[in-house]
Automatic annotation (TrEMBL):
Belongs to the prephenate/arogenate dehydrogenase family. One of its GO terms (molecular function) is prephenate dehydrogenase (NAD+) activity. This is Prephenate dehydrogenase. Residues 1-276 form the Prephenate/arogenate dehydrogenase domain. It comes from the Bacteria. The keyword Lyase does not apply.
Length: 381
């Protein structure tokens, strides 16, 4: 239920693994587009399916689950909303069968929310959080875990409140900051906007998301987002005060202010290091691309030139050991959301590219990390 970016991507991944997938959406045009992409069928199922995937905004989850449980659409239900505690509490208030329900949240997405931007590999190597409650049956959780496996994701089990605090920090706050930063551009002079480079574009990248959907998300997780925003506001206040003293204070004030500003920036660098990838292993946010360099026109410097043309930043680069295998592949570590477009761009320029997980090393086999499971019958809603 819901054939936007996430719902259609789930359906594409399941259909690619041989799962009979039914598409349901209040917008018939979205269903037609998703079906045309090969995500499944618009025909209703003839009986209860194994799993219903509820891909609707957080405030619509409980109503949707209640409605389709009454219709006996499925034997198990999970959602993909980025808030977990509030929708579950609302399901309980509506009298939903909680034994057949488990909250879920795949940690993947994009700037746009429609089915045209859906991809079957959207969840590959990405965390997929599940928040089972005491009422959740073992079968319901197992079917949901199989869903994540079929989509190539990495299952993570968390308490609902722990999940909501985590995504407030690593997902909801960054989106809010991107939107607020983007709003500052409305008042910018035209000459200033022409100077905007990659730093600003990266900072506002996610601001293009659906404003209504994100207002729903933030409202549903208001307490957790508000708490981390208050902490950030305190740091912003300290930074503003330091800058004011640097601009208008005496020599002693400027010295203290400079130290405080440096401390704030240093803490930012230290925080960034906690999520930065490492060569020996890393978060699912990063992907190794292994690129063959085996000819005079396929040298590392030529590869770097083509990467630069693609306007994709590299996190790491590993050159082949010239004493062992001088013509071996070059390993490129990139943010997961840029791996697919960079791979396609390099292939268009004649490079042979393979992809693997951040922890698999620079020469992984294609499809690493995807676990197979028996065929299932699902409804992507």
């Amino acid at each position: 239920m819901g054939t936007g970016l996430i719902g259609t991507s789930v359906a594409l991944a399941l259909s690619a693994r041989g799962v009979t997938t039914h598409l349901i959406d209040r917008n018939p045009e979205n269903v037609r587009i998703a079906a045309a992409l090969g995500a499944g069928t618009a025909a209703p199922p003839g009986g209860p399916v194994d799993l219903a995937v509820v891909a609707v905004p957080p405030s619509d989850v409980a109503r949707t689950v209640a409605e389709y449980q009454k219709r006996e659409l499925a034997r198990a239900y999970t959602d993909v909303a980025s808030v977990k505690a509030a929708p579950y509490a609302q399901c309980a208030e509506l009298g939903c069968d909680l034994t057949t329900l488990v909250g879920g949240h795949p940690m993947a997405g994009g700037e746009r929310s429609g089915p045209l931007d859906a991809r079957a590999d959207l969840f590959t190597d990405r965390p997929w959080v599940f928040t089972p409650a005491v009422e959740t049956s073992e079968n319901t959780l197992n079917v949901a875990l199989e869903l994540a496996s079929l989509c190539g994701a990495v299952p993570v089990v968390l308490d609902a409140d722990d999940h909501d605090r985590a995504v407030a920090l690593v997902s909801h706050l960054p989106h809010l900051l991107a939107s607020l930063t983007g709003a500052r551009l409305l008042d910018g002079e035209e000459y200033a906007l022409r100077l905007a480079g990659r730093g600003m574009r990266d900072a506002v990248r996610t601001a293009g998301g659906d404003a209504g959907l994100w207002a729903d998300i933030l409202a549903s997780n208001a307490s957790a987002v508000g708490a981390v925003l208050a902490e950030l506001s305190a740091d912003l206040g300290r930074a503003a005060h330091a800058l004011d003293r640097l601009a208008h204070g005496g020599p002693e004030q400027r010295g203290d202010a400079y130290e405080e500003l440096t401390g704030l920036l240093r803490r930012g660098s230290e925080g960034r290091d906690r999520i930065a990838p490492s060569l020996g292993g890393g978060a699912g946010s990063y992907v190794w691309l292994s690129v063959a360099v085996d000819g005079p026109d396929r040298r590392a410097e030529h590869l770097l030139a083509d990467v630069s043309t693609s306007r994709v930043g590299l996190e790491r680069m590993v050159l082949p050991d010239e004493s062992v295998h001088p013509d071996g592949p070059v390993g490129l570590l990139v943010a997961r959301e840029t791996a697919w477009p960079l791979s396609e761009a390099l292939r268009d320029r004649g490079w042979a590219v393979q992809r693997g997980t951040a922890g698999a090393g620079p020469v992984p086999a294609d499809g690493a990390g995807i676990a197979a499971g028996p065929a299932r019958h699902a409804a992507a809603m």
